[in-house]
Amino acid sequence: AVVISAALFAVLVITRWGAPARWGSRAFGLLSLGPLPPPEDDERHRSRLRVSPEQVAWLEERIDEVNGALPPLTSFVVPGGTPLSAHLHVARTICRRAERDVVALSAQEPVTPEVIAYLNRLSDLLFVLARAANEGGEALWSPGAGRA
C-alpha cells in the first residue's frame, strides 16, 4: 500500500493534478487497506480499519464515471502519452503487482477478499484515468504495424 500511495503521490505532485474535488480524500486512501487477514469474530478485531465492500463499490462507480466519457476501445492501449498518463500507467502497474502479490499470499495465509477486489478495481480506475489524461490522443496497438 505504501508503494502504491507513493506512486500516486508522485502523480499528484509531478503533474500538479488532483482527483476531482467531489471525490474527496476517498480517491487515494490506500493506507486504509488495513491488515490483510479477515476480521475475527470478536468486536476488538472487527473495529480495525478494513477495506469494505462499499469502498470497492465506490471505485467501481468512479470507473464508470470516467469510462463513460471515453470512446470505446478498439485495440490495446500502449501505455504512455501525456506525462500524467504515463505516471498513472506506472501507478497502475505497481497496483497490479501488489494485487498479484496479495493473491499469491492468499494461497498461504487468510486475506480479506475485499483487499484483492479493491486493488483490482483501483488498478482499473488508474487505467481509465490514464486514458482520460491523454484526452483522446492515446496510442493504440496496431497488430503487424511496422513490419516490412
Give the N-to-C terminal Cα separation.
45 Å
Report strand %: under 5%
**Major sheet characteristics:** 2 strands, antiparallel
The global form is globular
Number of helices: 5
The total of beta strands comes to 2
Helical amount: 40-55%
Q: What's the alpha carbon Rg, rounded to whole Å?
A: 17 Å
The strands making up the biggest β-sheet line up spatially as 1-2
Summarize it.
The chain is mainly alpha-helical and 148 residues long.
Secondary structure layout plus pairing:
Blueprint: H1 2-15, H2 43-46, H3 53-67, E1 77-78, H4 83-106, H5 113-133, E2 139-140
Antiparallel strand pairs: 1-2
Provide structural commentary.
By secondary structure, the protein is mainly α. It has 5 helices and 2 strands. It has a two-stranded antiparallel ribbon. Helix 1 packs antiparallel against helix 4, helix 3 runs parallel beside helix 5 and helix 4 runs antiparallel to helix 5. The longest helix has 24 residues. It is globular.
List the keywords.
148 residues, mainly alpha, two-stranded antiparallel sheet, 5 helices, 2 strands, 3% strand, globular
